Amino acid sequence: MNKQSSLKQWIALLAMGLGVFMGLLDVTVVNVALPTMARGFNTTFTDLQWVLNAYTLVYAVTLMIMSKLGDMYGRKKVFLGSLVLFVIASAINGMAPTLLILDIGRGVQAIGGAGMMSLSMALVASNFEGRKRGLALGILGSIIGVSSASGPLIGGYLVEHFGWPAIFYVNVPFGIIAVILTIFYVAETPSYGKNHRIDLLGMLLSAVGLFAIIYGLIIKESHPHWSWLDIRVSGLLIGGMIVMAGFVLIELKVTDPMMDIQMFRRPHFLGTIAVAFALGAGIYAYNAFLTALMQNYIGYSAVQTGVRQLTISAWSLVLGPVAGILSARYSKKWMIVISLLVGGLGFFAMAHAISPTISFVELWPGMVLMGIANGMVNPLLNTAGMEGALPNEMGMVSGLLNVFRQFGTTVGVVGLGLIQDAQFENHLNTHLPALKMPTQALNGIKEALINAGPFSGHSIAFSSRIEKAPFAHALQQIVIRAYDNGMAAVAVTSGILVILGALGAAFLMRNHASQDIELKQSK
Prior knowledge:
- The structure is a single chain.
- By secondary structure, the chain is mainly α.
- Among the domains are: 1-196, Up-down Bundle (Growth Hormone, Chain: A), CATH 1.20.1250; 199-255; 424-485.
- Helices cover 82% and strands 0% of the residues.
- The longest helix has 38 residues, at 394-431.
- The protein is globular, with a radius of gyration of 23 Å.
- It starts with a helix and ends with a helix.
């Protein structure tokens, strides 16, 4: 009987792992398909941005809502419903005849992805006990780490061999398997909200507030030269913060709140969300810039880039279970701190390696250190977060960890992008005047490069028209060095963010015995 029960638990973990993998993969897998989509829909990259933004926005906005519904009515039910919704939306996306239908389908798909992601950790925690729980959460952390970093490889392969619809169709068979396994093997959790009212106002305010803040950051990312005080940016950000302040006030007064604000009084919980934010703002946000470096400047294809990025993601497969086992013996807090410091060293190594002749040979040592940090911290964070939660809070804690990880990624992409843009533009302004060419032509090229930005500046400098000019080589070297300055600054900033996460863990997180005391005092 024990063997049968144990086997059932691991099959349940497989079901939840499939859901998590699909949900997180679809955050990044679309990036490599955009050029093919642009040709297929006969549209521009600007119009295609909503294929990305629709998923990111809806995913972040609905994480907490799906977490609360799972806590109230049973996490298995909501997880299963989310799986079904995700599979149906994936099939519709693959068949989408127009860009509008694809954008809508991506938003619906994100609701399913949020439900799967926000409840997976809580379901694992309730389906496993003792040392098995740490191992299971470690394996789930491995899946989170791998899925976040393997988008370019999986997406590149599918698009190259089967076309862009394949990135959506692939979810259907695996999703159906996950649905069947969930029905038969995942144990349901108690419904903690049988006698509670749904906090509709709280859900509405949280959704509107998060949407405004994240959309404001996306707008700033799309228009880096707009001031933060521009009403189109500041209006969204300030409005979102006001709405979130209203959300907090409502949650403090209602009888059955969507979220127990008292959770934020626990230092341990604050430490875990600080680590989640640092992971997103440092490691996951940096992946977008690393992918651009490899593809746009070094010249690797999407598949070649994905294969090389296994240097980062493969560590999650190896270290996730190891971290789960070690967490039963050693302090999760200090393991997280040390791992984040290792990741910080990896970023500084990457910054030191950046040069006009850089290749994978110079990149891989830093990438290995980043991979070790990601592979260790994700599973340890999951376990530590669940240990610091009451049974009826596990879904919300899981959701909040994912909200802060996703929010950190969005903030990181915007912040790192602005730093890169500033360094890129400063270098161009300083060195382009040295080129011996007419002032009008120089100003035109400089304006084109600045408007294109670091990601696309390479294509302008190495265009067939520029190649014929006598100043081509000198211009290309200036553009490459401008990009390198930006990338080095991005790597250093990411390293600092990860180290700040380590400090947050060191000062705020508690060991298991302390957590138990804090939980009893907070009841």
